[in-house]
Amino acid sequence: MLRGSDVQLDNQGVRTTCPSCGTTNRLRYQTLGRSAQCAKCHAALPQPAAPVDVPDAPAFDAATSTSSIPVVVDFWAPWCGPCRMMAPQLATAAQRLAGKALVAKVNTEDNPDLAQRFRVQSEGVSCPRDSRSKTFQRRPPLFPNAGQNARLHRI
Ligand SMILES: [Zn+2]
After folding, report:
1. pTM (2 decimals)?
2. Nearest 5°: phi and psi at 81?
3. Which residue of the set 18, 21, 41, 80 is catalytic?
4. Is residue 76 in some structural domain?
């Protein structure tokens, strides 16, 4: 299973390290969810199974508009206690959804432009209202300008 540090988003896909030979490969957004092979050693590449950090707005836009599988986005902030409390559940969800959905994390401190675009202005918006709830609350898509796969799940 891939862990966060092994996986990065860029403008074209998810950069991931081959578990067999260590070569960096890119799983293109358009083919996420399909079986993939390492370009060098042809070992099977696992699908992202951990929340991946969104580095910037272009990567966010590429992922949400071109991904072949739904993108689950968590807006969070390092200083937000409830965000950190929910992190293990997000990780579990990412593991369960591997190959079926891409779980992405937007650090609103690093990406104030994205936070502003989706009007995530305070932790009260981006964080769970009920921290006792064990379930993900599905909300309607909040990305009018992004692809139809984009969904914002508030947790
Ligand atoms: Zn390899």
Report:
1. 0.74
2. -60, -50
3. 80
4. yes
Respond yes or no: is residue 38 known to be catalytic: no
pLDDT tens readout for residues 72-106: 888 888 888 888 888 898 899 999 999 999 999 99
Alpha carbon of 5 to ligand 1 centroid (Å): 17
In a domain, 99, yes or no: yes
Contact 69, 14 (CB under 8 A): no
Question: Is 18 designated active site?
Answer: no
- List Cα–Cα distances, 59 to 40, 67, 132, 137, in angstroms: 25, 11, 32, 25
Domain of 128 in residue numbering reads as 47-154
Instruction: Tell whether 113 is covered by a domain.
Output: yes
C-alpha 130 – ligand 1 centre gap (Å): 43
- Say how many Å lie between the CA of residue 107 and the centre of ligand 1: 30
pLDDT digits (tens, 9 = 90+) for 101-129: 999 999 888 998 988 887 765 544 334 33
pLDDT in tens, 3-40: 445 688 999 999 999 999 999 999 999 999 999 999 99
If one counts the domains in the chain, the total is 1
Q: What is the CATH number of the domain that holds 134?
A: 3.40.30.10
| CA separation for the pair 49, 25 (Å, rounded) | 15
CA of 4 to the centre of ligand 1 (A): 18
